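Workshop exercise sheet. Pairs work together: one partner reads the sequence aloud, the other fills in the structure field after running the prediction. Swap roles for the next sheet.
Pair: D.N. / O.F.
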Amino acid sequence: MSATVVVGTGPVSIADVVAVARDGAGVRLSDEALVAIARGRAVVDELAADTAPHYGISTGFGALATLSIPAEKRRDLQRSLVRSHAASTGPEVEREVVRALMLLRLSTLATGHTGVRPETATAYAALLDAGLTPVVREHGSLGCSGDLAPLAHCALALLGEGEVRDATGALAHDLPVHTLTEKEGLALINGTDGMLGMLALALHDLATLLDTADVAAAMSVESLLGTDAVFAADLQGLRPHPGQAVSAANIRAALQGSGIMASHRTPECTRVQDAYSLRCAPQVHGAARDTVEHARAVAERELAAAIDNPVITDDGRVESNGNFHGAPVGYVLDFLAIAVADVASMSERRTDRFLDVARSNGLPPFLAHDPGVDSGLMIAQYTAAGLVSELKRLAVPASVDSIPSSAMQEDHVSMGWHAARKLRRAIDGLTRVLGIELLTAARAMDLRAPLEPSPVTGAVRDLLRARGVPGPGPDTYLSPDLETAADVVRDGHVAAALRGARP
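Structure field:
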């Protein structure tokens, strides 16, 4: 288990989210957080004692906000809110997503702006620290008033209710029962934590995938006997996008020392201009990098936010607001899905060039051992094409849609949760498409023997071989090789091969 993440000493970072969500890190609240929480709670206790209506404290919710709730029913109010809003349906959401959203809700509780009691925040932290993960299902959030249904399932676990899995994945029983008081049920469910947690995980994954895409492009340029002249720093500098500069530098580093490149880097070589999928890789990968950096800026602002409605201000006011609206997060989730689809689309085009004897510069049709008898990697390209087609559908933005809810009180919603769910599927698709390109480029590289690849691209080829992906030869059962190639991309080893070669 990783070291414990202390919540309440500053904004939670993307690295904290990954540590808790994926690596099983524990959590605890800082002493400063407990002081802030107690200070905010004192405001709620004072308001609960007077006769004026206060939303979330002594009134109903949403379209029922005009109804006054007597003091003796306010605990029932909070319990009923959590039970009724735990209304998701469909397949279970991944454990890492639930842990991420719980950490981020705890982070907001730790600011003292929500009005929960210290013992409620501590009980929530204890669930997360113990590896207990409430079952949240795929459908239920509209991304406005926050991710209500997913967060309500997590709050329900505090009541000792609902389905909860332990660290082994088994259903847990005999959970501690915690009673909620004024404002607490609302504070536990009103935030963008689900979509933000998935954004944080996606940003972590994309850092690896975009480095991998640069390596894959370099392997394709190399094994297709393309030119690397277009990646020169001065040419790239004529269009000063920062992501483009990074990707071009990565491709140069990955090709450094390549015997294959050197073999045709002569005055006799007429390869001055390659197809776009080779020549324009830094421009497309770089644009994706710049989109990721914009999304990272939005995520970091959101990680520093305290999202609830109503909220306890620093000067002790309780104010309704619209900060729970998921538009800022939803937009960048959609932007990223567009970038992911385009990077994958370019990767698939490079894969296809290897298999076409008219465009592969001397390689056998479909890289087959005995063309006609063997089909080589023909159908691997079909698989990549099918994935890219799906990614294009997933790139259609979710955030442009809105279906009103709560008797038209919530008449414009973000659909940010849906944007996050499709981005997760898109990232898996990009992982697989890049794996297919690497597998294809590695086979082509072997067919260029005795010419030697660069240290970086050769290391990636050797990594695939060490994992059991065969080189050129008669047709074999291909599906396991595609899965292995995807795993090599996913676990970061391809990106790691590049890291040591960077200047």
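Discussion prompt: The chain has 19 helices and eight strands. What would you look at next?
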